[in-house]
Amino acid sequence: MLYSNRIERDLITSFMKRLGRRPAAHEIRAHCAELIRQQSAAGNSSQMMKILIRITIKSSPYMQNVAHLIGNYKNTVRQYVGAEMPEVADRVSICNQKELPLPLIISCKKYLDKAKRVARELELHYFNIKPIIVIGGLDSGFESFNDGILKLPVSDDYEGLPYKMLEVFTLFDALGARCGVIKIDDDVTINKDLPPNLDEVRSAFKFADYMGNVMGYPHFDRTWHFGKCNSSVSSIYGKAFVAPYANGPLYFLSKTALSKLTSHYLKYPGCLEGELYEDKAVGDILHSYGINAEHNPLQYTLQIDTDAPDRLASISA
């Protein structure tokens, strides 16, 4: 699901050949620390530094200095984005100045034209803030940003969506999205004739950490993914219901929520293994840190219709 997994596997395989045996986790951590020192001394790409730091955190998530390493990772991300994608950092800064969450339209290459239409309409609707379209792709090992489209080195398939979401949340946490982010699907409809009220929007997000149309019951649709996945996954979702969560088409995460998600994901990326529903995964992780979804259907606050035809068809079936 992640391009960095390939680098991780190659790095450990090479280290194993050098040692002539399987390396232990603490040896991998020490090896990565040495590589980080070498990369830093040589002034090499911060992209490789990011991967090495993540491997270090993942190999020893309970070490005493893990918070320091997570901070180093965020600093490295900021340096990389500042050098390679300054417009992304600028959009975060604009939202912070306007005291508004950053809108993220989550899409894929297949539905990119639809996402672009939503982005054009949303910019005019949402106080002239340019939203960022997010897609994936494993053809490159680094993030890129062109024409308002942020491409992450993750799978672009439906089953890769949980990883896409945690990667983008980690990125914008590192970039200091002080007012949080709004996750928006690419099949929403902007109610252009009903512009949102600026004061009401700011007020709605000011004191919340995690908010949206809450799914508060365990009898959710466990076959929602059927027919959407490109890989061989179970036809019926098999994970337990943990806690109410904000429904995927439209929800809000504060800076605090982003920070909790980032820390958890960097330490325990295996939390997404076998996961298919990104909205439920977000709710499950945040619940473990005492952050629970607040029911506030944002379609009324933002005047964004989330009743896409395929959702309505599923509900009425």
Discrete helix count = 12
Q: β content, as a range? A: 5-15%
Structural class: alpha/beta
Sheet bearing the most strands, described? 8 strands, mixed
Q: How many domains in all?
A: 2
How are the strands of the biggest sheet laid out side by side? 3-4-2-1-5-8-7-9
Low-confidence stretches: 311-317
CATH-defined architecture of the largest domain: Alpha-Beta Complex
| Gross morphology | globular
Average pLDDT, rounded to a whole number, is 94
What is the end-to-end distance? Answer: 32 Å
Total count of strands: 10
How would you describe what is shown here?
This protein is of the alpha/beta class. The chain folds into 2 domains: about 5-85, no CATH class; about 95-315, Spore Coat Polysaccharide Biosynthesis Protein SpsA, Chain A, CATH 3.90.550. It has helices at about 5-20, 25-40, 45-60, 65-85, 85-100, 110-125, 160-175, 200-205, 255-265, 280-290, 300, 310-315; strands at about 100-105, 130-135, 145, 150, 180-185, 190, 210-215, 245-255, 295, 305. The strands form 2 sheets. Strands 3-4-2-1-5-8-7-9 form an 8-stranded mixed beta sheet, sandwiched between helices. A two-stranded antiparallel sheet has the order 6-10. Strand 1, helix 6 (about 110-125) and strand 2 (about 130-135) form a beta-alpha-beta unit. Helix 2 runs antiparallel to helix 3 (about 45-60) and helix 7 packs across helix 10. The longest helix is centred in the N-terminal third of the chain and has 19 residues, at about 65-85.
